[in-house]
Amino acid sequence: MEKQVEKNIYKRGPYSFQVKMQVSGHSIIETFDTLDEARAFRDMKRVSKALDPDFKRVLEARVKKKESAQFTLSAALERYLAEVTPRKKGANRERDRIRRWQARPLSKRPIADIRGKDIAEFRDAERKRGLAENSVRLEIALLSSVFEIARKEWGVETLSNPCKAIKLPAGSNQRDRRLEPNEEEYLLKGMQEVCRNFYAISIVQFALETAMRQSEILGLEWARVDTKKKVAVLLDTKNGDKRSVPLSSKALEILQGLPRSIGGGRVFRMTQDALIRASGFDRFRLTAPYSKSVATFASTSSMIGVGKVSTLRALRADRSNTRG
Predict the structure, then answer these.
(1) Which of 19, 10, 63, 18 is nearest to 45 (CA)?
(2) Which spans in 116-241 are helix H?
């Protein structure tokens, strides 16, 4: 009958000591007459294992695998939020997207256990729920970025990116159209009926009047509005270039009706998510005044060589025709 006397050493009878251990995946069993001899053999094998580069690589891989098994998706998202998100232009929007992911059951699982099948199931469920293809794509794109950062910068080299194993939803299809007759009237009337937020209605009216993008309107500050020159200066645009937007009499009237603090600040004190919730519409219908008609019309006109002032004039003419 054998009895363990030390780690990897077992006593067999009154005068026999046996060493049992694993070295580089191989079992080693050796018997000695004394405990000192058994100890010396065991310690020699331990030293040889420490010096073996192949064994060190195997050991490091095992440690990293164990660490990644304890590293949940929620924890990875939290670290990403602290280290990566603040450097991005759309930090606030990404923060909301991260919180949505952390509220999902998948975030409780170890990041190393998430497979392409899990991401595909999420994609299909969101489609079934009615979320737009581009919205689903953006949710998955965030997750893909988290996996890539973890693999390249956080030392989890063995981690695979499951988002690359599936077919991603297509991005937004470009749209180019003008408001149909009475659409503006119906839109504003509908918002007044279902929306109780003063800013939300003013934002839509201002978008129709200026052809500014949603992000440009929400980020506009009083310090960048010159009512005397009738112009708004945009520093944070989609392409990164500074540009000026002429303000019509109606646009100035909308601005004059807004509350303004002594310290200035943002003109429209709403976030995108607050705007969506306040509207009473779903995401697609809410964004229609921006990217689906007005902003797209202005962008398209610019691409074919029409200047910004001419674009706005054409827009106003188009609005007058639809009212007639």
Answers:
(1) 19
(2) 116-129, 133-153, 183-194, 198-210, 214-218
197 alpha-carbon distance from chain centroid: 28
Q: Which residues contact 214 (CB under 8 A, 6 or more apart)?
A: 203, 207, 272, 275, 287, 290, 291, 295
Radius of gyration over every alpha carbon of the chain, rounded to an integer in angstroms: 32
Q: pTM value?
A: 0.51
Pairwise CA distance, residues 14 & 231, whole Å: 99
Question: Could you report the average pLDDT of every consecutive run of 10 residues in the chain (324 residues)?
Answer: 86 86 78 87 76 60 61 93 89 91 94 94 94 91 95 85 91 61 76 76 88 86 91 79 89 90 84 71 41 36 32 40 43
List the one residue out of 204, 210, 209 whose CA is nearest residue 192.
204
What domains does the chain contain, in order, with CATH numbers? 2-51 (no CATH), 70-165 (1.10.150.130), 183-323 (1.10.443)
The answer to whether 39 and 10 are in contact (CB under 8 A) is no
Long-range contacts of range 115-120, CB-CB < 8 Å, 24 or more positions apart?
A: 115/162, 115/165, 116/162, 116/163, 116/164, 116/165, 116/166, 117/162, 118/162, 119/143, 119/162, 119/163, 119/165, 119/166, 120/166
Query: 3-class SS at 221?
Result: strand
d(C-alpha 261, C-alpha 44), whole Å: 77
Residue 36's identity, in one-letter code, is: D
Burial call 227-261: b when 16+ CB within 10 Å, e when fewer: eeeeebebeeeeeeeeeebebeeebeebbeeeeee
